[in-house]
Amino acid sequence: MMARVLVAAHNHPSLHPGGTEIFAHDLFRAYQRAGCEALFLGATNHIHREARPGTSFQSIGDKGDEILLWSGHFDRFFMSQVDLYGIVPDIVELLRDFKPDVVHLHHLLLLGAEFPHIVRQTLPECRIVLTLHDYYPICHHDGLMVRTSGKELCYGASPDRCHSCFKDIALDKFVLRERHLKSLLSVVDAFVSPSEFLKQRYVDWGIAAELIHVIANGQPARPLAAKPAAPARSKPVFGYFGNLNPWKGTTVLLEAAKQLIAEGFDFELRVHGAAPFQSETFVADIDRLFAETAPFVQRRGAYRREDIGNHIAAVDCAIMPSIWWENAPLVIQEAQGQECPVITSNIGGMAEMIENGVNGLTVPPNDPLALAAAMRRIAEDADLRAHLSLGARHPDTIDTTAGRYLDLIETLRLDRVEAA
Q1: Domains 4-218+397-419 and 237-390 share a fold
Q2: What are the residues whose beta carbons fall under 8 Å from the beta carbon of 161, sequence distance 6 or more?
Q3: What's the pLDDT score for residue 85?
């Protein structure tokens, strides 16, 4: 018997096209193709939608199988709902009406850390799966596990270390935050991590290793996009794809481009993506760097997801220079699916997806000189480019990934039956 699945994420890709929201929505549709009755719930707030008095829910889409939970009163420190009296009864009513066999959560942000507990209290037999996409429960610094000063990577969270990053927040509040989140997560039946690296961070934090299953994210099946027709390019073309923000290494990329220009190197860098919700300081910095690197660097702005295959096919190499421990960037999967080499940082899940010299090149994070050297190496060695393209690791299809999740869900069902 196929499951009835409620898929819940911290936004909707049509409102905020982040990697987690996109993957969650892709998986929701794959569950439906597999025969499941699935409902998508995306939490949002005033940044994307205004409140509509009288209900916590808003409609989105035209098929009646997607809804929004307006979550304008949210405590980001404790990752908790503030308006419990307003939201919880509506969530309970939704659960009772839909009666999911499985609730598949993709984040606690905006949904609230209480969500699994509400599910368990309302539907005791429901199986709860939480896919871990970043480090929000562990790290108050936007789930980055990067220190607030110096952009130093954080190898292990503790109340003392967290307090040293946020000195205006009392140490005992970090103790309470950790206990609060671990208590609410204790009702989750299974966690899923798309990378071994992220799994280990949560094991180090205190979640039992046997509860965390590693299932790689999948992508919608796409054909290879057509490469640009002859004549061959007269200079190498690089591409960046995704939102522009400090943690994605935008300034590192532009500084690397400045270095190549200073060396007299002829190239083209196409930067696809916008900078929504970024600070004035960051926007001013990248505006200056774009001006200083024109016309070698082309600022191409936001793009439609359905166009990314053609955009990637038009470059010799994609660049993913993030300076935080990315988990499983969709952009790397998109590039590899188009047999495009990738230059990326040698940390986190990125280092699991790209093996240096096999399907791309890896460089230390936050190092413009190393990134510039890798770009030059790719540009000057056609044999290397061909070798890295042949070594591309095509991602699983989203339907394959859905099948793996459904296998896990069936295992949880059998375990529950045996325990009864």
Answers
A1: yes
A2: 154
A3: 74
Question: C-alpha distances in angstroms, 411 versus 31, 143, 404, 416?
Answer: 17, 30, 11, 9
* DSSP label of 219: B
Scan for tokens 């929000």, then name that residue.
136
β-bridge partners, 39: 6
User: Residue 383 in contact with residue 107, Cβ under 8 Å?
Assistant: no
Backbone φ and ψ of 304, nearest 5°: -80, 145
Domain edges within the chain = 4-218+397-419, 237-390
CATH topology assigned to domain 237-390: Rossmann fold (3.40.50)
What average pLDDT does this structure show over 297-320?
A: 94
- Within 8 A by CB and 6+ apart from 402, the residues are 27, 30, 31, 33, 34, 218
For residue 385, the Cα-to-chain-centroid distance in whole angstroms is 27
User: What CATH number was assigned to the domain covering residues 4-218+397-419?
Assistant: 3.40.50.2000
CA distance 277 to 244: 10
* Rounded-to-integer distance, Cα 20 and Cα 23, Å: 5
> Tell me, what's the pLDDT at 169?
96
Per-residue pLDDT band at 417 (split at 50, 70, 90)? low
Q: Which residues contact 288 (CB under 8 A, 6 or more apart)?
A: none
Beta strands 80-81; 66-70: pairing state:
unpaired
User: Could you tell me whether strands 317-320 and 237-241 are parallel, antiparallel, or unpaired per DSSP bridges?
Assistant: parallel
**Taking Cα atoms as reference points, which of 73, 80, 78, 76 lies closest to residue 174?**
78
Close Cβ partners of 230 (under 8 Å, ≥ 6 residues apart):
none
> What is the distance between the alpha carbons of residues 167 and 157, in angstroms, rounded to a whole number?
15
